[in-house]
Queue: 2 jobs
Job 1
Amino acid sequence: EAQVTQNPRYLITVTGKKLTVTCSQNMNHEYMSWYRQDPGLGLRQIYYSMNVEVTDKGDVPEGYKVSRKEKRNFPLILESPSPNQTSLYFCASSLYQAGGYNEQFFGPGTRLTVL
Amino acid sequence: AQSVAQPEDQVNVAEGNPLTVKCTYSVSGNPYLFWYVQYPNRGLQFLLKYITGDNLVKGSYGFEAEFNKSQTSFHLKKPSALVSDSALYFCAGTALSGYALNFGKGTSLLVTP
């Protein structure tokens, strides 16, 4: 089954404790992205990746890191989480074709609470 | 800078009536525009997209959207609403030459029996 998986689905942590949210897709997609969803703010893009070893900042990258060492994986790293990073996080992937843009497939979400 | 706006936080419609969820965009150059739907406790699901071509785009579950360049709008429509259409709807867009996708804040659609 074609899918985007995220782990963990739920996480409660404390300020300053490094954490990683994993994202994996089995569709051989070039493009992957991380979003956060907050009430009244919709989805905001954190980072995206056009392909292996190619990443770029989205609208709200502060406090986050990403890496793209393999095509299928795109982990989101919070080196020192703070309460304002409490949010619902979504990973997404899509095919990228030169000159085109395709719909994104979303993971189920990770609900993060930072105390 | 590019942006997408959804002017309505919530839309209420009776089952069987037509529905419209509004979206306007500000994108330099030609836009790629999308609609996604989010059901409770689920990720977003793709509904439809506009790249080029016909201004009326048909998508999943009987939804369609009309691209209007002069009004910079991309409204989502359905001729006859179902209670099961109740969900959160997001409009998203990007420029042809860009890669970052901008989402609107979402519109909650409530279809009452």
Job 2
Amino acid sequence: AQSVSQHNHHVILSEAASLELGCNYSYGGTVNLFWYVQYPGQHLQLLLKYFSGDPLVKGIKGFEAEFIKSKFSFNLRKPSVQWSDTAEYFCAVNAPGNTGKLIFGQGTTLQVKP
Amino acid sequence: DAGVIQSPRHEVTEMGQEVTLRCKPISGHDYLFWYRQTMMRGLELLIYFNNNVPIDDSGMPEDRFSAKMPNASFSTLKIQPSEPRDSAVYFCASTRTANTEAFFGQGTRLTVV
């Protein structure tokens, strides 16, 4: 079955530290990949997405992610985090075959210390 | 567009009562999803619809849960009877097509006491 795995459940960083959050998916076919962010008490918002083309995608607020097909990975990165990046981050995979099914990972809670 | 609209934002109910959560997707979006978020299980897909038709309800936890989409602009998720373990935040999301990003509502925080 299609699944998404996020390895880090809780990450604590100091401001200006670099961030990398891992995401792996299980499906072998063509997929669309997403990272969403959920700030405390709010709904999920799209950070960035990958459909095709350049495997390095840039999103809002200085985030980027790299799609590595051979590793079934789509890791999220940011060179220098800010206190305002404190939030929960979700990786998601859209099922291939045009079924529309959208599956999320368990989420990673990022806490940035000022 | 106002985005995905969910109601109520908060619901507190007693065990055994019926609970109905409501969602209005973005106009023109063909897909609607219901998710449940808990600390233990993260964000679980319960059911999703395409053009008002349920496509996959394999995530619905048990028969106490049911969902409908009578038209393109409205969906409900009903729990009857509710139990304390149903306490969670329930999110509705919609997408324009099968392969576009999802837009989420603000969620309904359900507490069953």
